[in-house]
Amino acid sequence: MIKNINIAWAECLIEDCIRHGIEHFCIAPGSRSTPLTLAVAKHPKATSHCHFDERGLGFFALGLSKARQQTVAIITTSGSAVANLYPAVVEAKQSSIPLLVLSADRPQELVAVGANQAIEQQGMFANYPVYSGQLAEPSVDASLANMLSELGHALALQQQTPGPVHINCPYREPFYPEQAKQDLTALYKQLEAWINSGSPYYQQHPNSSQPVVSQHWPELLEKSKALVIIGQQTAEQSQAIIAWAQQAGWPVVVDCQSHWQTAEEGTGLIQHAELLLANSRFAEQVQAELIIQFGGKLVSKRLNQWLAKSSAKYYLIDQSAQRVNPGQGIQQRWQCSAQAWLHAHPVKTSTSSQQYLERWTQAQQAISEDVNTALLDYSELAICTQISAQQKPQSALFMGNSMVVRLFELLGQPCQAEHYFANRGASGIDGLLATSVGVAEGLQQTCTLVIGDTSLLHDLNSLSLAANSQQNLVIVLFNNNGGEIFNLLPALSTCSQDQQLSKQYYQLPHQVDFAAAAATFNLAYQQVVNFEQFDHAFERAQQQAGASLIEVCFTPGDASARYQSLISQVASHDAL
């Protein structure tokens, strides 16, 4: 076998990735990563996605992994290219999303000596990867087996604790296919059994033990004030939790990311906790004796504050190994799937919690008129509701961070979409467009992204990803000329001097022409300013191929004022 040794090592690495079930490789152009890039390009089972901006590429991979629920690989050249992946790596760690970063690097003798495009890449992402590894430089004296076993070990750890893995891959020039070829027959002979097996070189199977059953479970079933909370969950897990809780007769507080919208209609779903708990009297009256929470990253600030003050027995079930206890209360924690925990903790039909269930459901019914009235006028609140109402079945809804996701959480409207996403690991406003393009690509379904103007400005380069996507992606841009959420800061909304300070240091009005941005990337574009225009634009955008941008214009300060007004109404609601 006559071949360049860097090419040979990279081909073995990518082959083993494929055998481990990694199908998608997100690649940014660069010279040093040529061995990895060519190995992917020539592999018949590898699917590649290319983008010039590593920051956007990282978030695209994140969205692809979220949608496909499998590890996605990212390949970059050396230097600052790797550093641009940092925000996506952080989000992947915080959200337990499996990514594999394969960063090409200079050989060790070129690091820290002033060589071009050479930086310290080992440990670059600090403690955010669940595993960080440094491969040996390819040579006839080094062990290919060690490289393959390290990959298997890293992916085994990732399976136990989902999150990003970083493997740094140094390549010494020359590394192009026709350069410095040598006879590698002896090297391949050592791997003959692996080559012929079709299996990963090293594979560790996960612990399949069942979750420990709570010793107090029989007596807890008799509690009269038991509450179930659903955070981030897949549709399948969410439906199982809801059916389980409904059998027990327990109210279920649902987060906008929990996929409650996909469940069959039934009693006990509470989608307005953020509003209801603003009423201090109600919040006190519904103090629970037992709280069972599935998944973390709850959007509702008031729900998190209410949980932090609760003295209830608190169970939390989540597949990640992360500590999910922002209120730092007494907690029993299970690391397992929701369905595994439900199987170990069966419930029986009971009426012991009937009064508690009715207290929640009647309160939600009591504020329904307040919510409906808040949606009558053209506003960001009303358009969020219209998006929910017009979303097609077998589609995805991606909720942008900052104000957007809070509006969806506040309003809790029914929706026909099959999938619901938000980047709530670190809750940043960067990379949202790129992530949604990855989601659309992974699902091969229509995806609607609702995003604020400042968030889109953070990710304008990713309009290129959107323009090149073959999937139907509808980008709904809420343009209120700056950071609307900063109007909610308590000390910056009173006198004119405070308001000016808020604009200058927080909101940063921009006056950007988004029509020109869409035109730059050849994206279909329409600006709307009322219900009827949005209705037509959104309906048409969901039916056309490719990506499109709908800019929905609002008066600055309107959304935050309506948001606070609705919360104030419920807070003073006598019926609660």
UniProtKB/TrEMBL annotation:
Catalysed transformations (reactions): isochorismate + 2-oxoglutarate + H(+) = 5-enolpyruvoyl-6-hydroxy-2-succinyl-cyclohex-3-ene-1-carboxylate + CO2
Cytoplasm listed as a keyword: no
Q: What is its EC number?
A: 2.2.1.9
> Which cofactor(s) are needed, names only?
Mg(2+); Mn(2+); thiamine diphosphate
Q: What InterPro entries does this protein map onto?
A: DHS-like_NAD/FAD-binding_dom, MenaQ_synth_MenD, MenD_middle, THDP-binding, Thiamin_PyroP_enz_TPP-bd_dom, TPP_enzyme_TPP-bd
List the PANTHER family: 2-SUCCINYL-5-ENOLPYRUVYL-6-HYDROXY-3-CYCLOHEXENE-1-CARBOXYLATE SYNTHASE, PROTEIN PHYLLO, CHLOROPLASTIC
Q: Provide the protein name.
A: 2-succinyl-5-enolpyruvyl-6-hydroxy-3-cyclohexene-1-carboxylate synthase
Source organism of this protein record:
Agarivorans albus MKT 106
